[in-house]
Amino acid sequence: MNGLMDLLGKKFFSRGSGDTGRPEVRRILLVHNEQDQCESLTDFLEEEGYRVSRTRQGRKAVSMVLNGGVDAVIIKGKLLDLSGYEVASIVRRLDPEIRVILTVGDESELYGGEREQVDFFPCLLEPFQPRQILRALEGGAQK
């Protein structure tokens, strides 16, 4: 996996003008299987100045991360092909600096067995306010 990281480098990020030393999040990949929620969140984020790419499938999301140009990934907990937790774990292994935010439909998704297999990710219970996503995107680096 280290060879892959060397190949990918840190081209995913642009540095912000602040003095935090953290990458500025401007390019977001939204992975969500519900069209209406996906469109409304995309519209909101674009109005806030973010560039948003979208997909409904976990495998496609991983491919998009590999192709670069992603600062953060917002993932629905349950997807059509992979679970959001699986995608989050893969993304984190590919580049630990990419911010990963999970959204879940109900509390039972927060406490499933899969959740224990991945690092901690910010998790938002749906329905959430779009401003909650902004706070998670603008928050500190995840470890």
From TrEMBL:
Q: Does the keyword Nucleotide-binding apply?
A: no
Matching entries from Gene3D superfamilies are given as: 3.40.50.2300
Instruction: Check the record and name the CDD domains matching this protein.
Output: REC (cd00156)
Residue runs in coiled coils = none
Please provide the record's keywords in A-Z order.
Phosphoprotein
The source's superkingdom equals: Bacteria
Positions of the Response regulatory domain: 27-141
What SMART domains does the annotation carry? REC
Q: Per UniProt, what is one Pfam family of this protein?
A: Response_reg
Q: Which GO terms describe its biological process?
A: phosphorelay signal transduction system
- Protein's UniProt name: Response regulator
Q: Which organism is it from?
A: Tectimicrobiota bacterium
